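Quick one: structure for this chain?
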Amino acid sequence: MMRRIRAVIFDLDNGLYPEEDYLLAAYREIASFLSSRCSLSKEEIYDRLVGSWRKKTSMYPRLFNDLVTDIGLGQELVPELLRIYAGVTPRLSLYPRVGELLDVLRQRGIKLGLLTNGTIGIQRNKIRLLGVEKFFDAVIYAREKGKEGDKPNPEAYLTVLQRLGVAPDETVCIGDNPHTDFLGAKKLGMRTMRVLVGEFKHVRLDAEHEADVYMQSLDEFLNLVEQGS
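Got it. Here's what it folds into:
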């Protein structure tokens, strides 16, 4: 199977690294900022924020809006919280052996794309902290065409395919979130693989939204690549 693949498209958050590392670092800085403006300690605010995230997930768009209301502060602080979130600089690391996988794929002449949802400045910051742009032939921010351009919109995948110069049936799309990562890719005829990691690892949706193949880690994909060499 692997010899027929000409390109692989990866997701960023929980696809290449544990997104929680970024989120929790940002939440600590936000909690520290807010604690100086209310009677709650930074630990109390941090716990509320983390609890809300774990309940509502990172897909919920009003996490900070709800937080400031909950602690008795005004919505005018939300832009500053977003600025903090976009500029945090934790030490991020790829999942084990992901760098090796990307190297092996490139050595075999397989083109690599990175397709990510979310606010462009935030996603750029994560990519910079991880130092992964060098691995990819195309890095696409789906939101360049507005929020409606986010995955699962097939247009996001088409943009990557065009940049890579490959056809859908020559391409594998790897992600972690069945809400966003596979529907558009499958509609175009790509093969899809889901890594069961991160905050959505226990989520199961209908067959249309699920990947063709499940993996516990990207080690399994690396093994497939090496077996096909």
